[in-house]
Amino acid sequence: MRKLLVLPLALVIGLFVLAACSSADEAEAEPAQPTVAQAQPTAPPAQPQPTSAPAMQPTQAPPQEPSAVLTASEVIQQAASEMGVPLQLPQPPANYAPVKGGHVDLVTNGWPFPRYWDWLHQGAYSNMYISLWAETLVTFPQGPGTNPADYTPQPHLAESWSVSDDGLTWTFILRKGVKYNDDQLDVDMSRDVTAHDWVEVADFAFGPETSRFRARFPEIDGPESWKAIDDYTLEVTLNRPTASFLYKLAIRGPQLYGLDGFKKRLADDPSLLVADVMNNVEDQYGTGPWVMTGWTPDVSVTYEANGLYWKEDGRGNQLPFIDSVEMFVMKDERAQDAGFRTGKLGALALETCGMSTERYLDLSKSNPDTVWEIFVDPTNQRAVYPNFSEGTPFHDINVRRAIQLSIDKEGWVQSVLGGWGLPFSTPLAPGNQFWLPPGQYGDYDGDGIPAERYLDFDVEGARALMAESGYTEDNGITGKFLLTNDLGNRFFSEGELVVESLRNIGIDLEIMVRDGSARVEAWESADFTLGYGFPGYGWDPSDWLHRGYHSRNTLNVQPISGLVDETLDAMIDAEESEVDPAKRYEQVADVQRYLMEKQYYAMSTNWIQIVAIQPWLVNYQYQYSYPIGNNLALAWVER
């Protein structure tokens, strides 16, 4: 495995002397080999294997210069060791003997729960509920024995692919024998899903001007970019080479829908909106492991096994093994833990917000046979978002830098994260394949101050910057801090910590709690002064830089108050178009240096991902992305 740019050992030791934690409404690559520091167990023979290798090998991180230094991955592992974090992954059962049947109840916090099914137009990042019944062309490694943060694209509905020399034409060879999973709409179940179905889905996904897929796949001009060469050959044409394209197809979709029901309802009543039609549960069907059988908004979604599912495990057993699944929304973490303790719930923290250290310690005592999945999370930083509407104070770089200086990151790790976290508020999270560690940012803007300066905790320095811009304790900034209950207690506590920190430098904000659609409306209407959220989610720089900072995306989520920096847009477009991994690394490094100087968002600390799994939910491991249906299809119930 090629390795990342690195830190000298002495610097590593100095950096990690610690002081004694996507949402659907917010979050999002050329794939790389996994670099999250943890054991890499051998994949079990029972896991499904691709039927053929992709024609294009995934791009890897640039090579390391030979010397006695640590990779970024090893840096993270050393830090975890110093924190006393028991990194661990579920392992495959010693005796692989799948059990057919049974039921499992699962739970998530409020944010990933579907409030609509208009995924084709919204292009939502959080497709975890959809992934049980609709699938993508490519996916990620699945099941126990794999790295839960390995985002190397794997064959799925496409069994192989190739790309033209100029990087503009991707050709996917589709898997034969894939059927839709529901016949309630008089679908012809005898025919295979074909490339023509994908072209039809692309028309729904990329056709409307309001489609969010247009913003999130700028390399695709529209539905005309998708072409069926024959029944099993799909061609997608890009307007520029894009390093992250294959990765995006796996984590962002589009998913394969059967459109018969939607088309029939629209034909019967042309006055209907597509969003209204797509909220009819009876019309939702795809090719996935389960069939969706019910949806109660803000309560649960139910599924039954798809008897026509195309996929088998590595030993010829048809998937899925579990007969039925119910996914509950439960904001009260005490209720979640109670359900797990009594055996009602099969797993906890199947979402990007994860579980707190305190909950881990409590459940370890009450349920010592719990199977734990604990790993350093390189994909999940939060950030303080300024309102960049015209006339707000956050166009002033001194104010933005002061916000970052006012926050005690090491204290944050100790207080909110229970000592399990990394205090680096860098534009990309520590452990990300393109992460630029402290010590490599330099003085990008040439003002004589190294960018690492803004990682310091320095209240007096922050007050001096505020005063330089005309703000004092008596003449400060007031307003509203947008926060939500939908992302768990740890997330909410972080927001409270930020608000208290800002009061020390003359920024006095009232916490305004908005959940669900009300929160989205606040972002869209600029009804906030500062907010707390996820600028991105994922493994590749496109998830953070393009998703979080490019105006094509920021204005999509915040049409009035979104960040617009044309220089930054051009830098991000350039690194996205660079398919050579070493060259792209350098371009992404420069973007990180630029962002560290600008401090458009005050990035959070980095937390540890913790997932709790019942011992009776066998052969299950959470793959740390939205398509969780593939993992659950490999699991079975033994109780």
Layout of strands and helices, then pairs:
Layout: E1 7-8, H1 9-15, E2 69-70, H2 72-83, E3 103-108, H3 119-122, E4 138-139, E5 154-155, E6 158-163, E7 169-174, H4 195-206, H5 212-216, E8 226-230, E9 233-237, H6 245-252, H7 260-268, H8 274-278, E10 290-296, E11 300-305, E12 324-329, H9 333-341, E13 347-348, H10 357-366, E14 371-376, E15 383-386, H11 397-405, H12 409-415, E16 421-422, H13 459-468, E17 477-483, H14 488-503, E18 507-513, H15 516-525, E19 530-533, H16 541-549, H17 551-557, H18 566-577, H19 581-598, E20 602-603, E21 606-613, E22 617-618, H20 629-633, E23 636-637
Parallel strand pairs: 3-12, 17-18, 17-19
Antiparallel strand pairs: 1-2, 4-5, 6-7, 7-9, 8-9, 10-11, 11-12, 13-21, 14-21, 15-19, 15-20, 16-21, 22-23
Walkthrough of the structure:
By secondary structure, the protein is an alpha+beta fold. Among the domains are: 112-297 and 304-311, 3-Layer(aba) Sandwich (D-Maltodextrin-Binding Protein, domain 2), CATH 3.40.190.10; 383-608, Dipeptide-binding Protein, domain 3. The strands form 7 sheets. A 5-stranded mixed sheet has the order 18-17-19-15-20, with helices on both faces. Helix 11 runs antiparallel to helix 13 and helix 16 (541-549) runs antiparallel to helix 18 (566-577). The longest helix has 18 residues, at 581-598.
Q: In CATH, what is the class of the domain at 383-608?
A: Alpha Beta
Percentage of residues in DSSP E strands: 15-25%
Overall mean pLDDT stands at 84
Unreliable stretches, pLDDT < 50, 5 or more residues?
1-70
Strand order of the largest sheet: 18-17-19-15-20
Rg computed from alpha carbons, rounded to a whole number of angstroms: 24 Å
Basic shape: globular
State the CATH architecture of the domain at 383-608: Roll
CATH overall fold name of the domain at 383-608: Dipeptide-binding Protein, domain 3
